[in-house]
Amino acid sequence: MSHTPDLLLKGGVVLDPESGHTKKVDVRIKDGIIADVGSNLDANGTPVYDCTDKYISPGWMDMHVHLREPGFEHKETIESGCKAAAFGGFTAVACMPNTNPPIHTRDVVEFIKKRAAGNIVDVYPIACVSKMREGKELTEMADLVEGGAVAFSDDGSPVQDAGLMRRALEYSSMLGVPIINHMEEETLNTDGHMFEGDVSTRLGIPGIPCLAEEVMIARDILLAGFTGGHVHVAHISTKGAVDLVREAKAKGISITAEVCTHHFTLTDEAVEAHTFSTNTKMHPPLADKDSVAAIKEGLRDDTIDVICTDHAPHASFEKEVEFIEAPFGILGLETAWGLTGRELIDPGILSVEKAVRKLTVEPYRVLKLELPRIEKGKSANLTVFDASTQWVFKEEHIQSKSNNTPFVNDELIGRAWAIYNKGQFYSI
After folding, report:
1. CB atoms inside a 10 Å sphere around CB 71
2. How does pLDDT run across 222-232, given as a tens digit for each residue?
3. Spatial contact of 239 and 294, defined as CB atoms under 8 Å apart
4. What are the chain's domains?
5. Rounded Cα gap, residues 368 and 99, in angstroms
């Protein structure tokens, strides 16, 4: 990353994800502000970045990442997580609150914002629904929002108490922010480690039934309908879950949903194909082929609003254990666009414009944040990318402190080439 207040992006195709329109124009940045957007702009001594055969879009956001700081810096830090985000083409991330201490008080929100200040990647903290993520007592939600929290979630500890969830939705609706729930009825998953189905039965690994996710989504749909609050479904993973969200949206209920790149890329068969690699263990687990097909259709018809990663770093010593003993989670930021290109754009499931919309317009809309725009007078917040480059993801591309990903040596399609934000430029 370098301090680059003035820059001319030359010869690119500007993509407006709100309208879906594209136009081949140059973008001139002066003092970190978009000074001009037009054809054949002269450099006039300004540094030039060649964007030939590349798109320029508003900066991408991943609204579901784990930066691990404070408390688990051996896995990831805010700095290293932002490096991974920048490599992946993201200029913004929203970080989950399963830290130590968790993001359940205003001082932790402010700590994260202070640690992230000055980084090219914007970091938006997501605060806890309940104190200590224990599901017993609501946090001081208004104070957390005033401190900079953009949403509420207990993340890997789903809100089991329906009464608490009701009150959380009532308060959050007054504050204008969503509740993001890890959709799992835990009494339906007492000791599961992968998707419950034919593969788990064959491998002898205790399974997590799809019902665990779907029952919780059904409950939260009813609560959202009753309270008028906004429920956001984290990392949707099953066919039944997609169907439930589609039906709720048709009824006008305030519900949105995200999907992780690994959930539209891999199935539960990957556990066997990768010989019980713990890098195929995530939560919710990789599901069956029918679920992956349903997720892709849900992306196509906009049942699923957002593409995210659930970037979840774990140190090698934590992952290099027996499958059942390993923690859930894999990296996601560095491979997100290449998997999106390979799995969604190249097969024609999503257009480039629609895929970018799910990385820009939609996460900003869900979190009620102002979308970056490529317009004269706006702060320059941009991602430069293509959707056609075929490349092999190698260990050397990993920017995270951890390396828990099943995609090393995979061929991906589409690359992020540069980002610009807050007067800083990073060429990947």
Report:
1. 13
2. 999 999 999 99
3. yes
4. 2-55+376-427 (2.30.40.10), 60-366 (3.20.20.140)
5. 24
Query: What is the C-alpha separation between 346 and 352, in angstroms, rounded?
Result: 9
Q: Which has the closest alpha carbon to 161: 141, 133, 126, 127?
A: 133
Low-confidence ranges of the chain (pLDDT < 50): none
- For residue 166, give the 3-state DSSP assignment: helix
143 in catalytic set: no
d(CA 361, CA 359): 7
Torsion angles phi and psi, residue 175, rounded to 5: -90, -10
Among 310, 346, 386, 410, the one annotated catalytic: 310
Q: Note the pLDDT of residue 1.
A: 75
Q: Check residue 379 and give its pLDDT.
A: 98
**Rounded to an integer, what is the distance from CA 123 to the centroid of its chain?**
12
Q: Cα(166)–Cα(410) distance, rounded to whole angstroms?
A: 43
What lies within 8 Å, CB to CB, of 237 at 6+ separation is 213, 259, 260, 263, 284, 285, 286, 287, 291, 295
Question: Which residue, among 262, 332, 306, 302, has the nearest Cα to 63 in the 3D structure?
Answer: 306
Number of helices (H) and strands (E), helices first, in the chain? 13, 18
- Rounded to 5 degrees, what are φ and ψ at 402? -105, 170
CB contact at 8 A, 25 and 38: yes
Q: 203-232 burial by CB neighbour count: b if 16+ within 10 A, else e?
A: eebebbbbebbbbbbbbbbebbbebebbbb
Residue with tokens 């995200």: 258
